[in-house]
Task: inverse folding
């Protein structure tokens, strides 16, 4: 019997191919690359502190990417996909997995960029710490984007406004948010369990977005 | 929900969007073989098809459908950047199904590797049908003959023979199939300045009369609605709406 897991993996391949074909991913990608270039155009400071700027950048970029992935198919084609896949849960799970994969790709690029561009040598442990921090910020951004994208909000204007508002208001809240936990420890050139907890929060956010989407569909 | 043999059962299904008017009320329909939905615009055909396919949840009622369902919407999107061959390959992988010969049978002409946005309306419709025929159990088609040339339209009728399918159609294809008229339930006539209520109630085909002051709502069988309307006007009533 053709399993649900294989259907979801096939959906991830399809959605990724569709996003690449649609080219709407180029805008957030170019913004990401441009800002990364500025961040690392001079000595960004101690190893883990250098990751705080790129971690703060990945959060809105991944929220943007989440909206791109969730709305890559128009409403009618999404309906066909839902019927083909056997229901909304599989499709929305695949949308979340595709978004997280894109986010992790961005996280790898950001982590390697610092190692290559910084004049300071990085240990493997610092590299892994940076990869973890970037991955957590990607997960948080993906969760915020998915939480307000179709089918939770059906109008793209409302999606953009809601995601923009949450992203913008996250920064002033500082250590009151999981993103703030990550940026705080990186800013002190440290790594702690707070990053892990922020990752758990991000995973819950992404899962919650899937559950909410299934209920609203 | 799955597991209902190879057909679909809609049991006491009702649907409204948000707090809007009811699009479907207490509809029960069992589809085995080919069933054609008919009815005027706005009678809820597309909504019923989406519920049968699993795109929409009913506001109330129960739907039991098989595992493998193919769906063709009323209008296949025209701005898809992916090629037809790539799209069908992906849909096949999602279903765990191999390629079919639907495009050949429908006479698809053009490039399978070009973006679907460059296809004609008819060829795009053939791609939509090809992905739906990957399903093994139930087919749910909303106006599937739209944009097809006569040869392809005739071939589609042949391809639907022997399949379990729920199809909406305005053009009289599939004459031998079971037909369900969604507007066949009743016609509601809203009247004001009502006189001769007893005479209206006694007319053949009148199912119910609900009076409120000088207004009344008359529910009548569709095939008798014209006679009831004529009699209401003859009695001097004002007709506010017919739906």
Result:
């Amino acid at each position: 019997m053709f399993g649900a897991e294989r259907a979801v993996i096939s959906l991830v391949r399809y959605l990724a191919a569709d996003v690449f074909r649609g080219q709407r991913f180029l805008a957030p990608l170019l913004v990401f690359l441009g800002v990364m270039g500025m961040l690392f155009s001079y000595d960004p400071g101690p190893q883990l502190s250098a990751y705080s700027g790129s971690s703060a950048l990945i959060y809105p970029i991944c929220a943007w990417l989440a909206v791109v992935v969730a709305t890559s198919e128009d409403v009618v084609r999404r309906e066909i996909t839902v019927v083909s896949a056997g229901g909304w849960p599989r499709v929305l799970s695949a949308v979340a997995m595709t978004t997280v994969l894109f986010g992790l790709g961005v996280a790898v690029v950001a982590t390697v960029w610092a190692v290559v561009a910084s004049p300071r040598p990085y240990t493997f442990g610092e590299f892994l710490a940076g990869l973890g921090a970037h991955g957590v910020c990607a997960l948080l951004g993906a969760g915020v984007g998915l939480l307000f994208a179709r089918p939770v909000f059906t109008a793209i204007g409302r999606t953009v406004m809601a995601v923009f508002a949450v992203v913008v208001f996250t920064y002033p809240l500082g250590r009151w948010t999981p993103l703030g936990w990550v940026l705080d420890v990186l800013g002190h050139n440290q790594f702690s369990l707070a990053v892990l907890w922020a990752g758990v929060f991000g995973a819950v956010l992404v899962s919650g977005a899937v559950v909410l989407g299934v209920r609203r569909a | 929900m799955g597991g209902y043999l190879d057909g679909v059962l809609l049991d006491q299904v009702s649907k409204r969007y948000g707090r809007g008017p009811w699009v479907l009320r207490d509809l029960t329909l069992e589809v085995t073989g080919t069933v054609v939905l008919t009815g005027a615009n706005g009678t809820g055909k597309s909504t019923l098809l989406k519920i049968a396919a699993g795109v929409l949840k009913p506001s109330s009622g129960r739907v039991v459908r098989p595992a493998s369902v193919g769906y063709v919407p009323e209008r296949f999107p025209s701005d898809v950047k992916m090629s037809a061959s790539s799209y069908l390959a992906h849909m096949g992988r999602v279903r765990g199904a191999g390629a079919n010969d639907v495009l050949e049978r429908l006479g698809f002409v053009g490039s399978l590797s070009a973006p679907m946005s460059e296809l004609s309306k008819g060829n795009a419709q053939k791609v939509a049908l090809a992905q739906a025929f990957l399903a093994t159990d139930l087919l749910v088609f909303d106006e599937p003959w739209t944009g097809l040339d006569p040869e392809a339209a005739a071939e589609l009728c042949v391809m639907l023979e022997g399949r379990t399918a729920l199809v909406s159609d305005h053009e009289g294809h599939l004459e031998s199939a079971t037909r369900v008229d969604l507007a066949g339930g009743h016609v509601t006539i809203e009247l004001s300045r009502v006189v001769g209520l007893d005479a209206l109630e006694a007319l053949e085909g009148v199912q119910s009369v609900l009076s409120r002051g000088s207004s009344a709502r008359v529910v009548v069988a569709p095939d008798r609605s014209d006679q009831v309307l004529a009699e209401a006007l003859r009695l001097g009533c004002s007709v506010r709406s017919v739906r």
Remarks:
- Chain A touches chain B at residues 2, 6-7, 10-11, 13-14, 17-18, 21-23, 74, 76-77, 79-87, 217 (CB under 8 Å).
- The two ends of chain A are 27 Å apart (CA to CA).
